[in-house]
C-alpha cells in the first residue's frame, strides 16, 4: 500500500506569532506593513525584540508571511516590508473555525506528548475519571472555567498551553502491513 499524507493539528509555540499575523494585511490585496513599524508596535506592547524577531522568523519559516524579497527572512534591512501569505490567511481561518474543545484537545495532546503520559496518568494527575479525560482529549466534552483552572494548577502549564492556536501540518503515513 502506498503511503499517503494526512493532516494533523500542531500547536503554535506561543501566541505572539498568531497575534502578529492577525494584525498584518491579508494576502489578497496590495497592502503591506513596514517591518520596522511592526516591530515598534509590538515593542510598545512590552514584547522583547528577540521574541518579536523569533515570532516573525517562525511565521516566515512556516510560510505564513512573505516579504518584499521572497528569499529573505523578515530581517531589516534585507527585507523592508511584511505581509501575510496565502498560508497565513489559511492559518487565521483555521483558528477562527476551531472550536474551543478542539483547541483544548490539541493542547492536552501536546502536554501528554511532552511528558510521555497516557490518558490514565493525566486523569490521575487531574483527579478525574479516565473516560472523562478521554472525552476531553478527543475534544468531545465542554469544560467549565473551574476545570480549566484545575488543569493549569495540576499540570503546571499556562492557559495558552491548554488552548493553543494551531496550524495544520501534513504528516506522511508509514506503510501499513
Automatic annotation (TrEMBL):
Enumerate the SUPFAM superfamilies for this protein: lambda repressor-like DNA-binding domains
Fetch the InterPro entries from UniProt: Cro/C1-type_HTH (IPR001387), Lambda_DNA-bd_dom_sf (IPR010982)
Which residues are the signal sequence here? Answer: none
List residues of the HTH cro/C1-type domain.
108-162
Q: Which GO terms describe its molecular function?
A: DNA binding
Identify the domain of life.
Answer: Bacteria
What is the protein name given in its UniProt record? Helix-turn-helix transcriptional regulator
Amino acid at each position: 500500500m502506498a503511503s499517503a499524507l494526512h493532516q494533523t493539528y500542531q500547536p503554535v509555540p506561543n501566541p505572539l506569532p498568531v497575534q502578529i499575523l492577525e494584525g498584518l494585511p491579508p494576502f489578497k490585496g496590495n497592502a503591506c506593513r513596514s517591518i520596522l513599524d511592526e516591530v515598534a508596535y509590538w515593542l510598545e506592547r512590552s514584547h522583547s525584540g528577540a521574541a518579536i524577531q523569533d515570532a516573525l522568523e517562525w511565521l516566515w519559516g512556516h510560510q505564513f508571511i512573505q516579504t518584499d524579497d521572497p528569499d529573505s527572512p523578515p530581517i531589516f534591512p534585507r527585507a523592508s516590508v511584511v505581509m501575510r501569505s496565502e498560508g497565513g490567511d489559511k492559518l487565521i481561518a483555521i483558528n477562527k473555525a476551531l472550536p474551543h474543545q478542539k483547541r483544548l484537545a490539541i493542547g492536552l495532546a501536546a502536554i501528554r506528548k511532552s511528558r510521555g503520559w497516557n490518558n490514565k496518568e493525566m486523569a490521575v494527575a487531574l483527579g478525574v475519571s479516565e473516560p472523562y479525560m478521554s472525552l476531553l482529549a478527543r475534544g468531545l466534552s465542554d469544560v467549565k472555567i473551574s476545570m480549566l483552572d484545575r488543569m493549569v494548577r495540576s499540570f503546571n502549564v499556562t492557559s495558552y498551553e491548554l488552548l493553543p492556536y494551531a496550524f495544520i501540518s501534513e504528516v506522511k503515513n508509514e506503510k501499513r502491513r
